[in-house]
Design brief:
Layout lengths: L3 H5 L3 H6 L6 E3 L2 E3 L6 E5 L6 E6 L3 H16 L8 H17 L1 H12 L3 H20 L9 E2 L11 E9 L2 E5 L5 H15 L2 E5 L6 H13 L6 E3 L4 H10 L5 E5 L2 H12 L4 E5 L4 E5 L5 H13 L9 E7 L3 H14 L18 H16 L3 E4 L14 E4 L6 H4 L6 E7 L5 H5 L4 E2 L1 E5 L3 H7 L7 E4 L14 E2 L2 E2 L12 E9 L1
Parallel strand pairs: 7-8, 7-10, 8-9, 10-11, 12-13, 12-18, 13-16, 15-16, 18-19
Antiparallel strand pairs: 1-2, 3-4, 5-6, 6-22, 11-21, 14-15, 17-20
Helix pairs in contact: 3-9, 4-6, 4-8, 5-6, 5-8, 6-7, 11-12
The chain binds adenosine-5'-diphosphate (ADP).
The site of adenosine-5'-diphosphate has 17 residues, from helix 9 and helix 10.
Amino acid sequence: MTTAAQLENLHHKTQDFISSPRKMLVNGQWTTSASGKTFDTLDPSTGGVIVQVAEGDKEDIDRAVSAARAAFEDGPWPSMNPTARERCMHKLADLMEENADILAELEALDNGKNVAIARAVDIQVAIDYIRYMAGWPTKIMGNILPLSVPYAPDAKFLGYTLKEPVGVVGQIIPWNFPTLMCAWKLGVALASGCTTVLKPAEETPLTALYIGELVCQAGFPDGVVNIIPGYGHTAGAALTTHKQVDKIAFTGSTEVGKIIVKAAADTMKNVSMELGGKSPAIILPDADLDIAIPGAASAIFFNQGQVCCAGSRLFVPDSLYDQVIEGLAEAANAMKIGPGLNPDNMVNPLVSQIQYDRVMGYIDSGRAEGADIVAGGKRRGDKGYFIEPTILGNTNRDMKVVREEIFGPVVCVQRYNDVDDIAKLANDTIYGLGASIWTKDVSNIINIVPKIRAGTVWVNCHNILDVAMPFGGYKQSGFGKDMGKEALDSYLETKSVCIMA
Ligand code: ADP
């Protein structure tokens, strides 16, 4: 169990929320699963049970999709005045702000992450994003088209486009940023006038369910937002093949993304995919190391490296290698390790036993393939899923740890000699989510940024996300964008209208 000492310091609303089994949200009602089954959600710092959660499966997905379909076809939501839609969304953002500390505690409990960072980053950006997206309904518009129609030269036409919601969306999210991913998905669906069935990750259902409570209080029509916790191969799979679902929006691993794209092909769903990464952080020879070294450390160790755009391949010029490795090891060794409910702990547990085993397997593989273990490499404590921040030195492109996404606090450092080769080295991966360049020289930026095949390139920073900045991948990191105006593109159909006078 989660320890009594941890629980007694929590806000009473957090304690209430985890004091009885959580249900699923279908058509504005909280219900148990059709099968009556529940699953345990665990505290990664102890491995103990936090609370039971209703386990959704095909029948629950059917009910939720029917509700979302009815809300889309016959309900007030898609045709509601844009200003009224905006008001509902602002109300939701206000309620999230009022409950931000509870959301942060639930996130720290369920995911394991640092509660203060969750409040400042995950929860705040989630709130900001709902507000950002709340600004869009009044600004979604088509165009007037200057038609020529060469085979009807004497006729007069008015041509224009309408932007219309794509319909019922199935949204499947991962466990690394549960509140933020929930907000990314709900915000754009709601702004575009879609209705949704959202499935949180089985490891971390609590904050999405809490947001479901706030959705009910915010006054959205029934059926607009449905939340079904459950496993990927059951509830998730049922959503991806459902005939009444028009679009699937997925954030998670490339491996599961491929399964979902195939599953959604039969009914030709609109699909957007935000997938894995193996993002390069490139220190150039002129970099300011006082910024680049702590920057490279936070690029990989933030959120225990459970970040799809984490700077997991660090490129260092041969001439700076020893200095960078020494600074990085110092930063890694100084990080306090422990449960996320204590805000002083900067390295928290990985989310699950499965994730712990996976990351440890990669560390062993790196060791076996000849990487230097410069820092970390071991478990910390004897309960919970804690792994020390780990630096693998002298790695190369052929090692499994360099080629595959580890999704843990493990950075692979590679040496290089020639700046002219750096873009090629950085692009030597199936992924293309993020990249960072550390330099003081603007001509390096101008030369290298266009050569990097990645959806975001940071300069002298890494992992900076903003509501206005589109985020998404190239190559096997996926397609379609979250955040920014571009997020709306894949939630809107374009209808051409042609009127002959
Ligand atoms: P991670 O590698 O981050 O654990 P996954 O890609 O395995 O992430 O899971 C992300 C989300 O995808 C979770 O909500 C999970 O339940 C869901 N999922 C996993 N397998 C499937 C599947 N076959 N069909 C639909 N959803 C799935």
